[in-house]
Each structure stands twice: as structure tokens, then as C-alpha cells.
Amino acid sequence: MPLISLHVAAASSGKGRKYEADKSTHDFKPDGRNALGVQTTGTVFEKRRARPDSGEDAYFISTVGNDTNTIALGVCDGVGGWSEQGINPADFSHGMCSYMAEHALKSGGSSEDTKEPLHPKQLLHIGYDKILQDSQVKAGGATACVAIADSTGRIRTANLGDSGFIHIRLGSVHQYSTAQTHAFNTPFQLSKTPHEILMQAAMFGGMPLNDSPDRADISDHQLQHGDIVVFATDGVWDNLSSQDILAIVSKQMQNAQAWERKEGKVLQLSGAILDVVKPTSSNTTLQSVIASHIVGEAKNRQSGQATRRTFRKSSPA
Q1: I need a labelling partner for 104 at 20 to 30 A (CA). Which of 67, 78, 94, 300 fits?
Q2: Alpha helices in the chain (DSSP H)
Q3: Of 4-13, 61-70, 172-181, 266-275, the least confident
């Protein structure tokens, strides 16, 4: 019997677009046959039209092989600076996530070479290797945070750059990732650089960043029944602190009576938690509500900051 069950949902919203929670929040149903984030076959334009509304960022969720109790998931943040070279940054990030989801879904749950359980850093390597071979993706780059969790409660992560995760347990931050940066606003990143750009960089100096998946920070820790782990790109982390996310998660968990205070004491796990993660009559789940509220609040903060910047620029000196 599994020690815990895994319930996963995703929410996203492209930069500069209105957030529509009902259209951009998705529950993952682990039946061993499907995955979120897998791109359709066809031209690059057909792939772009079929993507979720996440802009230059991407995500994936998949079972590992046919094991519906083991889940692989992750986020990739396309490096926006590539747009100055006429490159669509989303092609790299969505392609990476698609390749990782496809491999996780088709794998037997272990490395073909060592027969060891599939590791998130290995998955990161596979996604990166495949995007380098993809002729439809001419160039690009991304940060990434990838994880594999199973029903024993073990969760392993590989984080490269300034995407990341936060692990919350009964109203407190239990663990979180640390951003990897070379300098201010310069996170570690995977990249694919055409030969002509490399030649220009060699002539004028300033080689493009290209960090190996081997540089990803690795963590391996234990989940407990009722824990929440949030994975996100810097579209969330630049607008919400760990305490902001903790407050959102705690509020929704208590509203759903998944966590409760008995006699005014510390938060405790409710016996009703297995019911509240199931779809309601409106076809929503607790996990999708949490994901939606985090993205919605990040969008609100982002809009508020943009409004304040515009006001300052237009005000008299």
C-alpha cells in the first residue's frame, strides 16, 4: 500500500495577458497514458498554437512509465533575451518540457544504463540533449526545476537557475530551493547557441552563458501526508516571497478544512484531506485552487508594479 497519494495541478499565464483561471488551470490525472506539457507533432507554428497560455515559461507533469504512483514534473523559464536575436524563447522551454515528459512517460522508471530509478538530473540531461538535436529549435535558453516524487514520500529535485520550489508543511516552510546566479539578473541557464553567434561572441567578447545540467542543485527529502510543494519560474518568485506563498497555501488549506486548528493550538492535518483533493461538483480540486490563487496573486503583484512604474515615469520630476 502507498504511504501517500500524489495530487498535482498546474496553472499558468503569459506575461502581459489577462489571467483566466478556468482556462489556464489543469489537474493532472495519472493514468499512465497521458502527460501535461507534451507538444503536438507538426510544424513549429502548430506547436505554438497548441501550447498552454504560459508565455515563454513552460511546465510538464507525467507519470514515470506506467507507475501512476510516481510522478515527474518540472518548470522551465525561457530566457527572454533571445528575442533580441529574433528567436522565440518559448520554443526552447516548451521543447525541453515536452521531451522530459515524453521520456518519463515512456520509461520503465529506471535508467536504461544503470537500472537505477530515474533521477531528475538525468531527466534534465535527456530534455537538454534532445532540444540540442531538434532542428526546429534554432537557439534559445532556459532555467529549469525538475522533480520526481513517489508514493513512499520521497521527492528528488534538480534545480538549475532561478526557477525553484518551496515545500510547505502545516503552516510552515519546511524546505526551499536557492537560486543559482552568476551575477544580478544572470541565472544559471541551459542554452543552444548557433555557430554564427558563437563566432561573433569570440570576435567581440562576452560568450553566451551555457551551464551544464550537471551544475543543477540536487535535493532528496521526504514528504508527509498533507504537505504542499510549489514549483514555479521567476514569474512567481519575482512577485511573491516564500511567506506570501505560505500565506496563500495556508489560507486555502484551512478554507478547505484540510488543515485545522483544534482548540486554538497549532495546525493539524484533518481527516477530511482525502476528500478535498477530489474534484467537486464544479470540477475543481484543492490542488488546482492553490495553483490558481498563486498565479493569480503573482499576476496582481506584477500588474501593480507595472502600474506604479508607469505612474512614476509620467509624473513631473
Answers
A1: 78
A2: 21-24, 44-50, 89-106, 120-133, 195-204, 234-237, 242-255, 273-276, 286-314
A3: 266-275
105: helix, strand or coil: helix
CA distance 29 to 287: 12
Q: Is the pLDDT score of 62 beyond 90?
A: yes
Please state the φ and ψ torsions of residue 256, each to the nearest 5 degrees. Answer: -85, 0
Name the nearest CA neighbour of 8 among 20, 32, 25, 33: 25
* Among 206, 101, 87, 180, CA closest to 141: 87
Q: pLDDT band at 84, cuts 50/70/90?
A: confident
- Which has the closest alpha carbon to 21: 223, 294, 301, 276? 294
**Do 246 and 209 touch, CB atoms closer than 8 A?**
no
Given a contact cutoff of 8 angstroms between Cβ atoms, the answer to whether 96 and 127 are in contact is yes
DSSP string, 158-177: EEESS-EEEEEETTEEEEE-
